[in-house]
Write a structure and sequence with these properties.
Layout: E1 8-9, E2 11-16, H1 21-25, E3 33-36, E4 41-44, E5 56-59, E6 62-64, H2 70-86, E7 91-97, H3 103-107, H4 119-133, E8 139-150, E9 153-156, E10 170-173, E11 177-180, E12 186-187, H5 191-208, H6 212-218, E13 220-232, E14 238-249, H7 263-288, H8 300-304, E15 314-321, H9 328-341, E16 345-346, H10 358-388, H11 403-430, H12 436-473, E17 475-476, H13 487-524, H14 530-590, H15 593-602, E18 603-606, E19 611-614, H16 623-628, H17 643-651, H18 674-678, H19 682-692, H20 699-704, H21 716-733
Parallel strand pairs: 2-6, 2-15, 7-14, 7-15
Antiparallel strand pairs: 1-16, 3-4, 4-5, 8-9, 8-12, 8-13, 8-17, 10-11, 13-14, 18-19
Helix pairs in contact: 2-4, 2-13, 10-11, 10-12, 11-12
Bound molecules: adenosine-5'-diphosphate and magnesium ion (MG).
Length: 735
């Protein structure tokens, strides 16, 4: 399945939004983020630090400042990734950053303004334009899904009753990795259709939330596009490549305040951050390169992005920043996070001929329908030939004839047949020598034939409609599905692409030069005098000293952050421990130990769901066998019964005991249980003895009849009577 297997790192780009009006009015301090677009560097100024403190510099694959255009980011950083997806790679773009820094703006943007359209609408354009321009021997199938993860639950945004829908489960398969079970997937044939899917999902997201801003900053939205492409290979067989694209708008990365919350609110707060902190841990583990365990299973998000982080995918991370001084800490955290992600190595490969390709199923179904239609055509042709005696011109052109011809052929045949039947009916009516009865019979027969003919035609029409519907879902390269595919536009796009590529390469070379400068400075220099050497070395010392200071500050920062997150974790742990103790207290004081044990025994861990679950009380398969078994204390009875009740029934003393059994069951033929009788008191034994002497000597019947009955002779009719009597007694005695 793999064709090209190589390792490449996650591409990380940083984007800073402009200061908004409120931030501008806050003071003249200006932004704290500076960007060197040529070098791909972000320089961060600490507003609280003294002027002498060195500024923090981070280098990325690309940086986009406040003046950057949506188009620039797309052409330079996203376009190559979408091209890879179209070639059959998995691709992921995720936007990471504090709430309000432009994640949604970058991913979606303003749809109506062409200048402000974000990554997602641009990707739609890109994909469908590519398909329309590809060769005509390529067939495509494009599908889209949309989901969100909120409070660690995966929800389908395309499900019509999204609000009430249950959370979806994650499953894993060795072929396509982790996927969401039962997720709606819409086949899209045009940009308009896929935009519609996006809108439906966005609306579902907005409707489900009481406060959209709050909700979107706490939930992760994933838009998934699958592009399957089939193309004949050199071996003549059609090969399918499947590219999966994940477009992810993550929840706001800011720390959720946990202080003072308890119980459900505490759990909620922990869940909100769970996916993001798990993502951070996964990135750290992968970037570190030394950890043998990567905690993908810690959250739904990391499981879904498992392939995108360190697996079979090409990944672009867009870290978004705000320039306002008051968000310095969050901005620094985002930059650190992004900086770490640069070190993740992925192993992308082309997904060729996977078993679960839907396109293959579609092709097979279309071929089957086509064969059925052809068969019908062949049949109608043959019948036509029989009707008008024409010769039939072989089957060589069967495959090449289109479905319109098939339809025409069938229609023509039906018309001819109808005319012929009509003529025959007319002849019958006009035939003077035929008996009226005979005429009626023949006319009836012709009517039936007409009916059959119509049914046949209807079936063919249905088949053709189905065939057309199936085929229309597949997009064929070379067909003009978009109207702006003129040459000029194509050229313009190519030029843009070239420029973007050139800028990227330039930046890469600049970055490499910077690194090499530091390394080779020593080698280059040959000193003519001692003075010169001293000067050069002093310069170098200063440079290195500055670097040392930077690194020291960095270490201090990392330590501070570590301490802070440790404190937070400890606090969460303390509160959870307190809650646990409280629960234990309740269990120990209010729940009987045997009940507790029963519950404990029923608990099993579901590794798929990653949680503890209750086993059903009676395992489904052994239910029937358990039902059949009767407790030993109740042999001969429907359920266990006390000695006292047994005697009372025998005596017929109290109506209360009649309710012990209301039906006669003549099933159990086992001999009476003497062991129980042995334990009976003397007086009881006498009573039982007298029971034996009762007019009913038939032990078997006595044993098997209901013991709600006073010892009377038992006949089938009396059993009915007593049944009725017991029925009336039941409401009074039932507790
Ligand atoms: P997030 O999704 O990260 O919470 P949004 O995308 O909603 O943030 O952005 C918050 C506000 O900032 C929006 O009004 C958006 O229009 C504006 N904004 C974000 N990025 C930019 C940008 N690069 N240029 C102009 N405006 C931006
Ligand atoms: Mg948002």
């Amino acid at each position: 399945m793999s064709k090209t297997k190589s390792s490449e790192s996650v591409k990380v780009v940083v984007r800073c939004r402009p200061l908004n009006r409120k931030e501008e009015s806050n003071g003249p301090a200006g932004g704290i983020v500076q960007m060197d677009l040529r070098l791909g560097q972000v320089i961060l100024r600490n507003p609280r630090a003294s002027a002498s403190e060195p500024q923090k510099t981070f280098t990325f694959d690309a940086v986009y400042d406040a003046n950057s255009k949506q188009r620039d980011l797309y052409d330079e950083s996203v376009r190559p990734l979408i091209d890879s997806v179209l070639a059959g790679f998995n691709g992921t773009i995720f936007a990471y950053g504090q709430t309000g820094t432009g994640k949604t703006y970058t991913m979606q943007g303003a749809w109506l303004d062409p200048e402000k359209r974000g990554v997602i609408p641009n990707a739609f354009d890109h994909i469908f334009t590519h398909i329309s321009r590809s060769q005509s021997d390529k067939q495509y199938l494009v599908r889209a899904s949309y989901l969100e993860i909120y409070l660690e639950e995966v929800r389908d945004l395309l499900d019509p009753n999204h609000g009430n829908a249950r959370a979806l489960e994650l499953r894993e398969n060795p072929e396509s990795g982790v996927y969401v079970r039962d997720l709606t997937s819409c086949v899209c044939k045009s940009i308009k259709e896929i935009e519609e899917v996006m809108n439906v999902g966005n609306q579902a997201r907005a409707v489900g939330a009481t406060d959209m801003n709050e909700h979107s900053s706490r939930s992760h939205a994933l838009f998934l596009i699958t592009v399957e492409c089939s193309q004949p290979g050199p071996d003549g067989r059609k090969h399918i490549r499947v590219g999966r694209l994940n477009l992810v708008d993550l929840a706001g990365s800011e720390r959720q305040a946990k202080t003072g919350v308890q119980g459900e609110r505490l759990k909620e707060a922990a869940k909100i951050n769970l996916s993001l902190s798990a993502l951070g841990n996964v990135i750290s583990a992968l970037a570190d390169g030394r950890s043998s365990h990567v905690p993908y299973r810690d959250s739904k998000l990391t499981r879904l992005l498992q392939d995108s982080l360190g697996g079979n995918a090409k990944t672009v991370m867009v870290a978004t920043l705000g320039p306002a001084p008051q968000h310095y800490d969050e901005t620094l955290t985002t930059l650190r996070y992004a900086n770490r992600a640069k070190n993740i190595q992925n192993q992308p490969r082309v997904n060729e001929d996977p078993k679960d390709a839907l396109l293959r199923e579609f092709q097979l179904e279309i071929a089957r329908l086509r064969a059925q239609l052809n068969h019908r055509k062949w049949r109608s042709k043959q019948k036509k030939e029989q009707v008008d005696g024409e010769g039939w011109e072989g089957d060589g052109d069967e495959e090449t004839e289109g479905e319109e011809e098939v339809e025409k052929e069938a229609e023509e045949y039906v018309k001819l047949q109808e005319q012929r039947l009509e003529r025959e009916k007319q002849d019958i009516r006009e035939d003077q020598f035929m008996l009226a009865e005979e005429k009626q019979r023949l006319l009836g027969e012709k009517e039936r034939m007409m009916g059959d003919l119509r049914k046949e035609q209807e079936a063919t029409e249905q088949l053709t409609a189905k065939y057309k519907a199936m085929e229309s879902k597949l997009l064929v390269g070379g067909k003009n599905i978009i109207d702006h595919t003129n040459e000029q536009q194509k050229m313009l796009e190519m030029k843009r692409h070239e420029i973007a590529e050139q800028t990227r390469r330039e930046r890469e070379i600049q970055q490499q030069m910077l690194v090499q400068d530091d390394e080779t400075v020593e080698l280059k220099e040959t000193f003519t005098s001692l003075q010169q050497e001293v000067e050069a070395k002093t310069k170098k010392l200063k440079k290195l000293y500055a670097k040392l200071q930077c690194i020291k500050a960095e270490i201090q920062d990392v330590n501070d952050e570590h301490v802070r997150s440790r404190q937070e974790l400890e606090q969460t742990q303390n509160e959870l421990t307190r809650e646990l103790k409280f629960k234990y207290l309740i269990i120990e004081n209010f729940i009987p130990p045997e009940e507790k044990n029963k519950i404990m025994n029923r608990l099993t861990f579901d590794p798929e769901e990653d949680q503890w679950k209750f086993q059903p009380l009676v395992p489904a398969e052994s239910k029937s066998s358990q039902m059949k078994k009767r407790p030993s204390s109740a042999v001969g009875y429907k359920r266990p019964i006390s000695q006292y009740a047994r005697v009372a029934i025998a005596m017929g003393a109290h109506s209360r005991y009649r309710a012990e059994n209301i039906m006669f069951l003549e099933l159990d033929m086992t001999p009476p249980n003497t062991a129980t009788l042995d334990r009976a008191t003397k007086s009881e034994r006498n009573q039982i003895h007298s029971l034996d002497n009762s007019p009913t000597k038939d032990r078997g019947v006595c044993k098997s009849r209901s013991w709600c009955q006073t010892p009377k002779s038992i006949t089938s009719s009396s059993s009915n009577v007593s049944l009725a009597a017991c029925h009336t007694a039941t409401p009074m005695t039932a507790q």
